[in-house]
Fold these 3 entries.
Entry 1:
Amino acid sequence: MSEQLDNCGCCEPAPEPSPIYNRPGLPALSYRLGTYATFLRRMANKLARYPLPDGDHAGDRPLADLATRALDDPSIALLDAAAVVADVLTFYQERIANEGFLRTATERRSVLEMARAIGYELNPGVAATAYLTFTVEDAKGAPGKSNVPMGTQVMSIPPQGQLPQIFETAAAITARKEWNGIRLQAGNPQALSTSSQQVYLSGTSTNLQSGDYVLLVTETGSGDQAVARVQKVEPDQDAGFTHVTFDPSPSFPSIASPATTLGVVDISQKIPLNKANVRSWILEKWWYDKDLNAFLTWNEWDTAELYVTLIELHNQNNGSKGKLFAFRASAGFFGNNAPAYKSLPPTDALKPNFGQPWDSGWQIWLNQQAGDTSTFHEATADAYLDRTFSGVVQDSWCVIKATNGNQRIYRLASVIDKSIAAFAMSGKVTGLKFKKPDGSSLTNTEKSSAAFSVRETTAYLKSEELKLSQLPNPDDLTPGSNVVLNGLVLGLTVGQPVTLSGDRTDMPGVSGKEILTIKTIRHSNGITQLTLVAGWKYTYKRSSVTINANTVKATNGETVKETLGSGNGASIHQSFTLKKPPLTYTSASTPSGGENSLELRVDSVLWDEASSLYGLTPRDEKFTVRIEDGGPANILFGDGVSGARLPTGEYNVTAVYRSGTGLSGQVDAGLLTLLKTRPLGVRGVTNPLAASGAADPEKMEDARTNAPLTVRTLDRIVSLQDYEDFARTFSGIGKAQSVALWNGEHHLVHLTIAGADGKPVDPASDLYRNLVTAMNAVRDPAQMVRVDQFDSLLFNIKANLVIDSRYIAAIVMSHAEATLKEAFAFAKRAFGQPVTAAEVATILQGVDGVVAVDLDALHLTGTTEVLNQVLATDIAHVDNGDIHRAQLLLINTLGIKLLEVKP
């Protein structure tokens, strides 16, 4: 019977440790001399080989006869214990060695301490920024305005599974009810002229008909006048106006030109507030906003009374120049229906002694009873109508028009009813006395020059003024265009944020909202005109646009007031820990991209923060902030050599700071609606846009990349790579890529950026502005730089998978989908990085349980479902002189189709 041999391998000689070598670029260092097994084998192998040291038995090998290797033997058990100790020590020695290098460290604290060694602090994250719009109570009896202090807290209504977020206003504002929803001027004021061939009237019930005559007066009172005949009347029920065209075919009416006289404050005298002065000083001038405010202050004009007066004046004609009058009656003159002269008996008493037959040449002015052509009607009337007319009043307009086209326009100085007899007829008629349009009297010479035959002349009477509407403006409100408000709006300031909302015309059926900033303010003809900057993205239907000027910036975080402790002048480097982490950092134009909200006082005296205690003098009352691993913020003071020590005192160190930061603060639009403290007069609040610009505390993997970048840039930008490195370490920026471009005229640096949340960075956001400001402070100003967003592309995948029968198919499929999402997520992709079919197949093939992969489709979302071998993308480049943005290709999480197939 053959002996059973033990194949444990303990009889084989243990390998001696070889020199440790680690090639560059490894994710972990190999630093162990051995493991438990190799240590035990080496020691057991050397039992019989090592002689005794110097002495009487030198050279003897007393353990050579120890043949057992059983672990329960006391000698071997001792070696076993030593091997365990060596295994443990070498394991931790290797871990310590790995933690000593940035690439191989696995503990966030290790990365943090190594980064501090080169002056880099792990980014503590940055709080989200949102804009809040307040609605002021406008009910009767309400104050009409509200003082919203800085630090007003608004809390979000969280979606399911999330926590409420608190935002605080970053500035104090005075909100006003008239700013709740400022409307735009619906159209342009009309300017009537004597050649106008069409006009727009307010309302749809003008009672005008084709063939009616109307009077156009270019200016109130004594302006030029013209008579027009209505050709077509077109009411627009939806728009609320009536379009009237005249003979001949119409040309579009002119737009009232804005006032050209610049308003200047006259301090020689006080100008009282009345309609005449409002018309001459406000409606007929244009003002810079600051000058108008000075004028109102100097003359002590009450703004409420001014608004009432302006509304009354504007309502007369919506700011249009000129008036239109419709004539509601027409009449012939007395004698127009008398018998023909030749048909009368030949009686001398009936023969007019004028030198011509009255039936063809008798004028409306002459007194037919006088017997000569030099005598006009008596002073009470210049002419008589053929009957009486009610509703014809003094100062109304009258047009006298002959069949030969001759016409005159007058105003009525007086109106009388009288019985007269002539032309073999008599009756009660209405007598009219005319005056010129400017109000002066007519002379006999002027009457004689206006020859109107009784039979061939018609008078148009009972003038009624029809209110002009504004010319409808068919143009959309486009980015960068001037914004003309629907009246005078006072109190706005340059640099003030406003919320613009309305129906988008570039995407019908969708409402848009933007936060814009006031650049300029002008007032012309009693109308406020704004120029807005920062944020124009959409095109709006002008009539739908509203502006809320009760808008203010707010940042995530809740204010905390805390007593940190007592100073001790005998202690060095005293430190305190804030009790409510995380400390809020807000976006700022600093090299790191953030600044904390901490305000620290010692004995009620404000101390300043320093980036490091190194280099401070013993008198510098400064401190440093260190964000420890896990979130707490430590406040560290000097030792009397580098920075001042804290003075001794009882609870004399206090702090005011804000708590809250990170991506959790990026709440969606419309969720910030709960006022924790409601200012008097405020009815409600909301955030029209989602919060943005936040970033979580820097992750360890990001720190590995970012920490060395600061050593390369040293807070200055020189090379092309510096632009990318500087942006990459800026709080709130998740990706950056810089390329040099030539656009045919200039060399420029094109920097593509993405937010930490994977979304494009809005050029109107604080994050974008702060990044550009910080870069401009440390770069060569002669170098042209363009900071741009990226174009996001999505792709779909369809694949068939063969699953190992030993695995649960549903679990494998779920794991495969998760692996794809992770591999092609924002964090793993670069601008301009393509996706290949081979890459997708390799990723799927690497999933445990997947035996085979059959890729059916790889295509961009929205394109035909085909199998593309490569989905190419571009970095920023120039094509035909135009700069095209970089593309970022990510997987469409809803476009993954994985099917199990049997082998």
Entry 2:
Amino acid sequence: MKKNSFWLFIFCFLLSSFVTGQSKLQWSEDGLALVRLKKNQLVEEAVETGKDRAVIISEKEFGNTEPFKSMDDYSWHPSSGQLLVFNNTARVWRYNTKGDYWVYNVNAKKWFQLGKGLPAQSLMFAKLSPDGKQAAYVSQYNLYVEDILTGKRKALTKNGNRRLINGTFDWVYEEEFACRDGFRWSPDGKKIAFWQVDAEGTKDFMMMDNLDGVYSKPIPVEYPKVGESPSAVRIGVVDIASAQLKWMNIPGDNRQHYLPRMEWAGSQELIVQQLNRKQNQSILHMTNASTGTSQIVYKEVDEAWIDILPSIDDDYSYGGWDWLNNGKSFLWMSEKDGWRHLYRVSRNGKEEVLLTKGDFDVIEIAVVKEFEGYVYYYASPGNATQKYLFRSKLNGDGLPERLTPVDQPGTHSYTISPKADFAYHSFSNHKVPYITESIQLSTHKNAGGQSKIADAVVQSASRKSALEFFKVKTEQGVEMDGWMVKPDNFDPGKKYPIVFFVYTEPAGANVVDRFGVGNNRLYAGDMKKDGYVYVSIDNRGTPAPKGRQWRKSIYRKIGIVNIDDQASAAKEVFKMGFIDTARVAVWGWSGGGSATLNLLFRYPEIYKTGISIAAVANQLTYDNIYQERYMGLPQENREDFINGSPMTHAKNLRGNLLYIHGTGDDNVHYQNAEILQNELIKYNKQFQFMSYPNRSHGIYEGEGTTKHLSTLYTNYLKQYCPPGPR
């Protein structure tokens, strides 16, 4: 049951050509300018004036060069005067993480291609050494280091293949732990630490390509289903000069635990996070890079599960660890007191200080500014649908300080300058489209002494919006956030059809205050104009910043708690008086598709029509990391997996069901479609089904696919849940 709600999922695919973990908004070394591409030049744009203060690489230098013309991503390295460029990219599972890499040296005014002689479009995660003289990268499951000026290349591993993966990860680590970039340069540039995944003991799931020729083509994917042991993962450190390799000695059976995070702790040690199979115990090990010996420095347990930082904060998906006081302590996030808080933990784990005091959740970390003694982070204590910038002192003194102006309600993001005096600020809410500007952080004003964001909020105050946020409290006492889009020319004295958009699982929330949140891009037309009420509600278990109990009440109860909450909330919405309870539809994608099925099967008296896309019909078919994290081990509580699976309740179908799945879905396998169909056939339940050949989980590949899916969705909805008031 996939972690991303549908629109976040589509957003990820739209960005997939640009997401490599390299390119981020960059500040100049003095923190007074932003480094960005403008008019075919790489420039420094002064924050205070908004004008270009320097040209780093001119349009003439870039010229008509192939690396620049086809550039998908880049990162600027001012200390060595080099631009690292990623182009000719290709998709690996979800993102475009392989392709070609080039380095442009400003002093030499010359392009250097990395990996010459290796297969085109095969390099992954190239990173410059700390001194900028070398680059390391992965190609065809092996790790290489290369001298940039001479092109001399050294293979640091030679045994890589589809089953023995060096420097990157298998499908499930990438998908569920956000582990993609699998190696790290040591701070002194003398060593590289890397993950090795041994998938030899992991079973292949065979997908079939029936479009490539007259004979079907099997496509194997190493995919550990729930209940199956994980691939074996270990961490090695290789010396660049000698190519000698040392494996880190992490205690335990490496097929019964996970190693989702690893970073250097200075140039001689690594810090490694180890999760047990159930993911409810986290251990931090400090390992010696030369001897491989390890020592436990910090341990945490939870009755449900423990989220790792990259799953909360995307900035950590490609590495990073927040060290403080010259490596004597580090920043850590935990829910141990019932809220997601930040702690300062000593290097040996014996001392810790709570930094973010109060009954609220830290949503994610913005930046740590040790020189001024603060950690900046996002939170929203009063409204779980919004996101604001706060800061707390690194010594634990005082209370959190909100920096975002209180008169700017919505969703904010900041990229803060090195000296924390300026920031690149982005904002939107359900009334205001996405806006960005460079500001002075203390005043939230831009170079002209104004604020585009503040002006936009003022202008939107009198603007009517068809979308409204609301709260609903069920008879069981559960209060949930929701949004509702009412039809044009709404008449509360009439009855309207309602369409619920659901996701409901621990990895995605739908009810967020940002622009476009109430849009339904699958609907070919205007739902408001046609006369639908469109609603989404976040149940318990969704990752809203409402505390540990809210999020983890769903443990071992996916398909039960979330479904009961949704049905109870629907009953409360009906009490508003303008809903035609004979015309009630529900739809969702992935985890939302599973919820759609369960709602239709378990509450047929409420939901009359459902459109389910790429759903998990049987929880035992999904991957082990995701499903076991939230449900436990089927060897111990198999009945929970069965009770929460839609196929168990398929016999109760009374309404109208359209089920859609791509046959090339490597995430939620097409197998689920056939399992569900088989159950429905068994009980003579009539339904409609559409398969999309070779389409993946996003069902977007191929000419005409998006239009066809939208037309199918819209026609079915209009036929079985007719629009308009009555």
Entry 3:
Amino acid sequence: MANIHDYKLIAKKSSKYFDLLEIELEKQFPNLSDLQKERLGFYLFILENLTDRKEILDLADIVTDTEFNKTIFDDNFDDYGIDAVYINEDEKLISLFNFKYREKYKSGKQSLNETILSTKFINALITENHNELLSKSKKYAKEIIERLVESRDVWKIQLFVVSNEDFDLVKDSNIIQLEKVYGLEVISIGLNKISEFISLRPEPIDAEIIIDNDAVMSFAESTISSSKSYILRLTLDELIRITCDNKELRSKYNIEKVSELKDCTLDFSVLFDNVRGLVLKSKYNDNISITLKQDPTKFFMYNNGVTITCKDVIAEPVNANKKVRISIKSIQVLNGGQTLRTIHSFNSLDEKNIEEYLSKAEVLVRVFKASSENKLNNSIAEFTNSQNSISSIDLKSLRSEQLQLEQFLDEHNIIYSRKSGDTGLDERKNYIHKISMERFGQILFSLKGHPEKATNQKKLLFEKYYDIIFGPENLKIEDSPKQITRYFEIKKVYDSLSGKFEVNEQKLFYLIYLDEHLTAAIEDKIELFERIIKEFKPSSGKVLADSRKLIQLQFKDYLDKELGI
């Protein structure tokens, strides 16, 4: 269970996000208290982990909270109970957020029943009347209504109720009515779930196991290799023990009563290198729980198992060679993270579960010795996870070149965010920028002459085009700080002209491309580019919005011809 230390870590993390916002805006807010900065940064921290947006300014753009916009952007409007709105075009998902940031930690469950405030905004959606809304609230309500009413696609609506306390969302008749009438799903996110977002470099997690000879198989790459890996058949209560947050229990291989494990909780440090983030609700997780209750002895056959890497694994025969004692140093679970989370959650539901179900179920556990100095750790994670529905972007975050970029850019005070929640390798350092792996990939692809593909083919950047962008013969890591800094310089100038031109990422990628080929002031390049957009007429004769023009190769060819590129 989360505690006051998790509360303080979340506050620190939230404060870091506000610092990053000040850096990107190049603006200071000296009149704000530390608590106010934490509260506003909390929005960005949570949104990065619950949406697929990672850039600080992109996250700030989807915040609709009254205080946030009044303080940061001097834009005062009623948020109508919705503090952030995110529209996911790929998954046809509309996410609404209601935040509550508590100033002081209180132990024990609290009650949070303020969700009904959100009905003001939701009513505007249902009645298709956004006349009373202003600014961002009006903008996002209008966009949602267009998708719900005019689109032929089926859209799902979620309402996240988020608080930095350990709370129960009391579903009174009003909330139940919300779910029934509006067809939306209300999801509560409290201190326990938020603590799982925190990405802190972990202390090594070690464990000791004793198992029967027939439950272990060793593997070596060659007959002369001294480095061995192991495949184990472990009971789930043992898997819980070696991954729990109790150091004494992890080394207590001779535990006699499994009831000692009933209060164990997962040490999330073991998931630091796991590519799959927190999955809040999953049919897969439900199936695990059902199998454990209905047929625990068949769990081994139904589950793909868990893959662990470690810095060292030592096996020695004991008990007259009838058993094997295995010592594992610095455990990281690279595959099977959802299985691990779910069985720990199942254990916490009822103190009898550990003895009646978990001790009777077994799972396949692969233990590989893979030092941090080589590529094996990353390859194991990529290939064992590629069998499951994990995005190609997440898988590529484990590649050695991505880790090298992270390290190299850190030396230049730039945060290279390979996964959600990254706020730098050194919490004490004052960073100048934060950029996601995806955004940098889009920048590099634009620089290579493909700005028209950088936006609408983001997934392909980490599949079909990955080697063209990040391959050893194409990636010049020494140029990355300059490329990122230039991107933010261009973005700053373009944003300053937002009253004159509509600014979006598509246009920025084109400007990055033009910046490589034209010698002129950024403002002049923007003016020239905007004129060419207006002049372009597609061969089909159709009237297209600028966003549709920019993804056409025909427009890219027209641009190159006009500018002699």
